[in-house]
Design a protein that fits this description.
The chain is mainly α.
């Protein structure tokens, strides 16, 4: 019970901080660092592609569901 109370407090504080920072950025927009975003997107696509290739070997229904989820 104490862990759940602590975790809900952490999530509440984190949500307030994110909403506050988002409202500041909406009022005062900043340029997006497209290079970093693009690199992160390519890395994510590569990892998902490798995971999907690895899952093609599975013949169970769960393996097929995970493969479809990765695609």
């Amino acid at each position: 019970l104490l862990g759940a109370v602590f975790l809900s407090g952490v999530l509440t504080v984190s949500s307030v901080v994110v909403i506050y920072e988002a409202s500041l950025r909406i009022m005062h927009p900043q340029p997006v660092l497209a290079g970093g975003v693009l690199i992160l997107a390519v890395i994510g696509i590569a990892i998902n592609g490798l995971a999907a290739l690895r899952l093609t070997r599975g013949h169970s229904l769960n393996g097929r569901a995970v493969f479809l989820h990765m695609m």
